């Protein structure tokens, strides 16, 4: 299957690298499509040429560009939208002859550890799209009304974990651990904990580490006093509401 990207930004590039196949790609003049093609093979094309030659087209441009990008296009090709906004109905309104599937992927797709949220659809093309995104990680199907909320977990999640790793690493450095070693300690602990959480729940894991009155209990209390739960709840509200 020949995949075409309309837009070649961070998310499109992560998907393309995860799939590892030559791509057809366009951009708005940034040069990113050419860099992606130089890396993976394929061709940098105009939007119209991508639609003409691809078997499946992925909309990866800015959401506000939807109407302008679609205006000159006449197509019945299957379309996958990874736009942060824009319902299936809104996208089908500007591409009336195309089946449209919405997906919210995330950047770990580049190393085939992504999580993609797919808006549940009865269109036959949905199963093809699901299989395609399973090549770069886990796919979770939700009703479209929940897609923005699910995307607020997975899409922005890598940035949150990166911030946590940065802050925790800085704290270790402040107490004398060299930066490279601190980063290894934090990231490998996070990776191991994530793997462990696939076999247990969060409460059991915390209780397994936390002794009454011990250092872990004191550290957890400090995180609670710092408002970690409230901050994550507010971040979710801001992302979904934005």
UniProtKB/TrEMBL annotation:
Full protein name: Pyrroline-5-carboxylate reductase
This protein's record includes keyword Phosphoprotein: no
Pathway assigned to this chain's UniProt record: Amino-acid biosynthesis; L-proline biosynthesis; L-proline from L-glutamate 5-semialdehyde: step 1/1
Subcellular location: Cytoplasm
Alphabetized UniProt keyword annotations: Amino-acid biosynthesis, Cytoplasm, NADP, Oxidoreductase, Proline biosynthesis
SUPFAM superfamilies attached to this UniProt entry: 6-phosphogluconate dehydrogenase C-terminal domain-like, NAD(P)-binding Rossmann-fold domains
UniProt key word NADP: yes
HAMAP family membership: P5C_reductase
GO CC terms, sorted: cytoplasm
Reaction(s) the record says it catalyses: L-proline + NADP(+) = (S)-1-pyrroline-5-carboxylate + NADPH + 2 H(+); L-proline + NAD(+) = (S)-1-pyrroline-5-carboxylate + NADH + 2 H(+)
Similarity field: Belongs to the pyrroline-5-carboxylate reductase family.
